[in-house]
Design goal:
Distance between the termini: 5 Å
Largest sheet: none
Structural class: mainly alpha
Number of domains: 2
CATH topology of the largest domain: AhpD-like
Helix content: 55-70%
Order of helices and strands: HHHHHHH
CATH class of the largest domain: Mainly Alpha
InterPro entries: AhpD-like, CMD-like
GO molecular function: peroxiredoxin activity
Number of strands: 0
Shape: elongated
CATH architecture of the largest domain: Up-down Bundle
Protein name: AhpD family alkylhydroperoxidase
Keywords: Oxidoreductase, Peroxidase
Radius of gyration: 17 Å
Domain Carboxymuconolactone decarboxylase-like: 48-124
Length: 198
């Protein structure tokens, strides 16, 4: 259970009820981060507008490159909700979600392309505290993806850090969107992390 309870459909008011209906049609149920954010309608609507903007703007990179970097960020932060929801989105996009179970071996696994390895390594470097991004790494990414691609990749990793850290702090855990790929906190990317208190 989240540390801040979700606003229920009954409590959401007329506009919030429309959001519930839309979310249920699109995702099958209301994503809990949305329902928790409804406690602060300004933050909720700002987040919704931003999310729609990111979705429309993120078009320069191949979907697999972008989504693997976002997924990796979620696993490093330890956000089981993001892993769950992100796996569902990748499945709906027709991406290979079976290989996500091997993401900790991305550097050597034949399941990942060189471009995907670059993006995942960049997600690791950006999500580390302190960050470990280097000039050489960004130059290599620019050669692979161009300037616009690097900006998109950087932005989407940063956005996922925001989402994952907020959800993790609020105790929002996986919701069953894609239970086949739950975060495993005992893997290297999740080592030493404690799941949020239920």
């Amino acid at each position: 259970m989240a540390r801040i309870p979700a606003v229920t459909e009954e409590q959401a008011g007329p506009v919030g009820k429309l959001v519930y209906r839309f979310a249920k049609r699109r995702f099958g149920s209301m994503p809990e981060p949305f329902a928790v954010a409804l406690h602060h309608t300004g933050v909720f609507w700002t987040s919704m507008i931003a999310e729609l903007g990111w979705e429309r703007a993120a078009t320069r990179l191949p979907a697999s490159v972008r989504e693997l970097a976002v997924y990796r960020t979620a696993t490093v932060v330890g956000c089981s909700w993001c892993v769950d929801f992100g796996t569902m989105l990748q499945r709906l996009e027709g991406l290979d979600v079976e290989r996500l179970a091997h993401i900790d071996e991305y550097a050597t696994s034949p399941l990942y392309s060189d471009d995907e390895r670059r993006a995942i390594a960049y997600a690791d470097a950006m999500t580390a505290t302190p960050m470990t991004v280097t000039d050489a790494q960004v130059a290599d990414l620019e050669r692979a993806f161009g300037k616009a691609g690097v900006v998109e990749l950087t932005t989407m990793i940063a956005v996922e850090n925001h989402r994952a850290r907020a959800n993790h702090a609020l105790g929002i855990t996986d919701q069953g969107f894609d239970a086949a790929c739950r975060i495993r906190l005992d893997t290297p990317s999740g080592a030493g992390r404690t799941p949020p208190t239920e």
